[in-house]
Amino acid sequence: MKILNFIWLYLKDWKNLLTHAIIGVTILLVAxxxxxEPVYRILILFLVVAFNIIRMRxxxxxxxxxxxx
Length: 69
Fold this sequence. Notes:
Elements: H1 2-12, H2 14-33, H3 38-68
Helix pairs in contact: 2-3
């Protein structure tokens, strides 16, 4: 259940949705003009998710730091 809760929190963040939408549209546009192998599409998706997880954790730590001071 923790995984499902984390996925739900991840998807509720508008910055994550915007990033995934931009990457998705970019991949579609590239695929129309220059076919990209699915392996690279999946790699890009994982990189975006990892970047967003790191960004969310840093944001959470920054807000905790502000509350402590």
